[in-house]
Structures are given as C-alpha cells and as structure tokens.
Amino acid sequence: MSKLPNTSASIFSVMSQLANQHNAINLSQGFPNFPVDNRLLEISERLLKENIHQYTPMAGLPSLLNKIAELTLNNYGRAINTSSELLITSGATQGIYTAINALVTSGDEVIILDPSYDSYEPSVLVAGGKPIRISLNDDYSPNFNRIEDVITSKTKLIVVNNPHNPTGKIWSESDYENLESILEKHPNIILLSDEVYEYISFKHTHISVNSRPKLRERAVVASSFGKSLHVTGWKVGYLITPEHLMKEIKKVHQFLVFSVNSISQHVISEYLDIVNFDEVGKMYSNKRTLFQEALKDSRFEILPSEGTYFQIVNYKNISTKNDLDFAKELITEHGVAAIPISVFYEDATDKHMLRFCFAKTDETLLEAAEKLCRI
After folding, report:
1. Domains and their CATH numbers in the chain
2. Is 244 exposed, middle or buried (0-12, 13-18, 19+ CB in 10 A)?
3. Which pLDDT tens digit goes with each residue over 333-355?
4. Which residues of the chain have pLDDT under 70?
C-alpha cells in the first residue's frame, strides 16, 4: 500500500524532460543557467585540497553555524543559539520534510495556502497528517478569514511561503499582524515559514518571521543557500527554530541524512565573508525588468512579481486551452517551457496562468521573449 498513491513525477521534471526532447528554452524549472560567482569557485578549488572530506557535526559545520547566526542578527535582529536553534539541512526541501515529520503526528491537520509548492502536502501525508488546503486571494495575498475558518482542535501547523513560489507575492506588515492575531487565539499551532527566496525581493523589503517576536518563538523558518547563492545543486539549506522544536527536528534529521555535504559547508562558510546579498536582489531585479520589458509587446498579460525569480503571466488573450495543455503546446510549437499554475492547487484551479523562471542569462531571456512575442 502506497503512502503517496496519487503522487507521480513532478511537473518540473515532466516539463524539463519535454523541453529537452523539443530543444526548447527551459524557463520552467527554478534553477539558474548562468555561472556561479568566480570567487566561490576559487574558494572551492582551494578548499577541495584540504582535509574537509569527513562528516561535519550533525547540526552543521560550527563556522557556518556562526556565520548564519551573524547573518540572522544583522538582517533580522534575531540572536540565535547556534547549538540549540540552528540546523544545516540538505536543501530547504529536506529541512521542511524533516520539520513536518518531526512535529506532525497521525491525525494532525496542516493548513497549506494554495497555490503551494509541491513538497508540502507529500511531507504531511508521509507524517500521517491531513493537509487542509485553502486558496489565497485573487491577488495571491493570504485570506485570513479562510485560514481562521478551517482551524480546529486538530490543527498542528500552518505552512506559509514568503516570498511566494509560484506567484512572486510578498507578505505585508498587515499580513503578519493578522496572522499574529489569529495565532494568539490558538497557542498550540506551530508556524512553518518557507523563506528560501528571502534575498530576492524588489519593490517591498522581505519581512521575515525571524523579525517577528510574536511568531518566531513558535515557528520553524526554512532558508536556502541554493537559491541565495545560485548553487541549487549543492543542496544546502538551514532551519531556525526555538530549542524545544529543534530537539524534535534533530531526532529525525540525524536518521535521515545525519550531516550535510562537508565541502559545500566549508566553502559557503568562507564565501559568506565576502558575498553581498543586496547584490543578489539587484541582479534579479534587473533580470525581471529585462524580461518584463521584452514581453511588453506580447499578448501575454504580465502580473506583478514582487520577489523570487519567477514571473507569472496570463494567456487568456491567446488561448482557451487549459494551462497544462497550453504549457505543452508552448514547448512543442513555440520552443519555450513554463510551468502551469493549476498544478500548485489541490483542485487544479485554472486561471490560464503560467510561471516563467527568469534566473537565466540575459541572452536566454531575450531569446525566449522573442519567441513568446511571436505567438
């Protein structure tokens, strides 16, 4: 009997494979196609020859833990205890899976806001929990009336994602105040905040749960160096959470991966001394502007992108096909791959939306936009 009977190959794998078959420009899967920082490569080459190839401590390389603590204090004003409140994970996805399986037990309910990243629900199901999926507002802001309406005595966890994949929406100060008001009424609910795109925000500054005293003492915050440093294949993320929650998370983590790739941890630890995360946000802001400007004369409706490296478009002026079929047609007929937004909803809500990833070279973005403008 399968724990995940309705789970098949992810849409990201499906669309990337189709893109490869048809030699299409792949703006579907969320990974950069440009080189990493040369300084990061130089550190990697130098450290590779040193004695850094054995297990690190289970919770992470001490120097990296200290650098993350410094980063968190400087950016969010939160002082964390590196020995009891911080854990290096094999990517944010493993961190999220581990947290859910450590904190959710059979019958617990977990609120997930749709459209949502595809790893949340399977993690809840494997833990024996019950996903309660509710839709965001039409502008992709959180609907707190819906959230409050579905809270029961069995609600264990609420999962939020900010900046938001797939829509690029960023939570406002009032959003957090509304969430705080709800959670004050329900002191046993834990918050899981997926903030892997925290350094990629544009018009509005990202507000982290790390900076919210009312939330952070009952929250698990997930971050990703893969996204922040353009090294998605390194699979290095981290969790920040109070000690009483971290104790349970570490119990699962030690038997899942025990410790994370030692070389990546050593390299990132040294690289954090020189990298400027403000430059990361500026670089992606420029790419977003370039892509949006290049699509201005197309028949696609360009929706706001406040953060992440994703751009949502509406194709209602082009086709009445459902978004999955249109996304496949876009690959086979026009040579550009995107992700249909309906796959991020439990009920496959189809608003004729596609997600493009603009974490690509300028040349790739311009070539893709040229093809899209011909449609």
Report:
1. 11-35+277-373 (3.90.1150.10), 38-271 (3.40.640.10)
2. exposed
3. 999 999 999 999 999 999 999 99
4. none
